[in-house]
């Protein structure tokens, strides 16, 4: 099994990529497994945070499986494309907070899987790159859009056009990574952050993510309407009543799943 779902803590799920012989390169089977794992978690209201990690210290994921791609005809590649897109979109569209725990290489599609998460924790061993134009393609798992939204259009153009590799310190400095940690500790740091987030209102988390994602590219007036709808869906929920009561009574909230 190249993908497994673990439960490292209350209300936290971790999708662990484990294809060591290929450094987690995404072939068709791996893409389907990622999509399946995300589909199951999206409908699980007992899960409030999802971590994406690797069982391999050397690599988070080195991107598409080019050995598989090299054997595909044009027709087969065209047929494989929707499978690949669904895998990346399934991570991007998870309705709850997501954290990528990056150790080692996050190249091509691996970088795009990290970019599809809300937060990226990079260990000192992390190396990011989008090398696609060097092998005759372009980033196709959201890289051209997600990287530019994280680091700005011109910096994204620099990284995509040159295909150069970005070490952890630079990734953190330019906003490609949100937090840095020491070698070998990215997954643990992600679990600690996930545990902190998971203690918050599940309704609030889902609606906050919805407002952030849906409003990001809109004109401010439209974005504020998105926020208002998300606020109303939260403010008139049982979570708001419980959260306010817990604050007044000076106790921890008891959220329902």
From TrEMBL:
EC number: 4.2.1.17
Pfam families in alphabetical order: ECH_1 (PF00378)
Matching InterPro entries: ClpP/crotonase-like_dom_sf, Enoyl-CoA_hyd/isom_CS, Enoyl-CoA_hydra/iso, Enoyl-CoA_hydra_C
Catalytic activity: a 4-saturated-(3S)-3-hydroxyacyl-CoA = a (3E)-enoyl-CoA + H2O; a (3S)-3-hydroxyacyl-CoA = a (2E)-enoyl-CoA + H2O
GO MF term set: enoyl-CoA hydratase activity
Annotated SUPFAM superfamilies: ClpP/crotonase (SSF52096)
Database matches in CDD domains: crotonase-like
The UniProt record lists the keyword Lipid metabolism: yes
PROSITE patterns assigned: ENOYL_COA_HYDRATASE
UniProt cross-references to Gene3D superfamilies, sorted A to Z: 2-enoyl-CoA Hydratase, Chain A, domain 1, Lyase 2-enoyl-coa Hydratase, Chain A, domain 2
Keywords assigned: Lipid metabolism, Lyase
Family: Belongs to the enoyl-CoA hydratase/isomerase family.
Protein name: enoyl-CoA hydratase
Origin species: Microlunatus endophyticus
Taxonomic lineage: Bacteria, Bacillati, Actinomycetota, Actinomycetes, Propionibacteriales
């Amino acid at each position: 099994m190249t993908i497994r779902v673990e439960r490292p803590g209350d209300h936290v799920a971790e999708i662990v990529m484990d294809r060591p012989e290929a450094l987690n390169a995404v072939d068709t089977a791996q893409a389907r497994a990622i999509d399946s794992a995300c589909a199951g978690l999206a409908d699980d209201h007992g899960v409030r945070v999802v971590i994406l990690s690797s069982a391999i210290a050397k690599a988070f994921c080195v991107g598409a499986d080019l050995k598989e791609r090299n054997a595909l005809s044009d027709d087969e590649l065209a047929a494989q494309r929707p499978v690949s897109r669904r895998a990346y979109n399934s991570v991007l569209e998870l309705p709850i907070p997501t954290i990528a725990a990056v150790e080692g290489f996050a190249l091509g599609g691996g970088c795009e899987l990290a970019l599809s998460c809300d937060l990226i924790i990079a260990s000192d061993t992390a190396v990011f790159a989008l090398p696609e134009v060097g092998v005759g393609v372009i980033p196709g798992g959201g890289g051209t859009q997600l990287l530019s939204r994280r680091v700005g259009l011109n910096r994204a153009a620099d990284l995509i056009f040159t295909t150069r590799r970005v070490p952890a310190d630079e990734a953190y400095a330019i906003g490609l990574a949100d937090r840095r940690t020491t070698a070998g500790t990215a997954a643990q740091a992600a679990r600690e952050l996930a545990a902190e987030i998971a203690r918050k209102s599940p309704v609030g988390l889902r609606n906050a993510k919805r407002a952030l994602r849906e409003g990001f590219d809109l004109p401010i007036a439209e974005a504020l309407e998105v926020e208002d709808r998300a606020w109303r869906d939260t403010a008139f929920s049982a979570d708001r009543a419980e959260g306010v009561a817990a604050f007044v009574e000076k106790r921890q909230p008891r959220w329902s799943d």
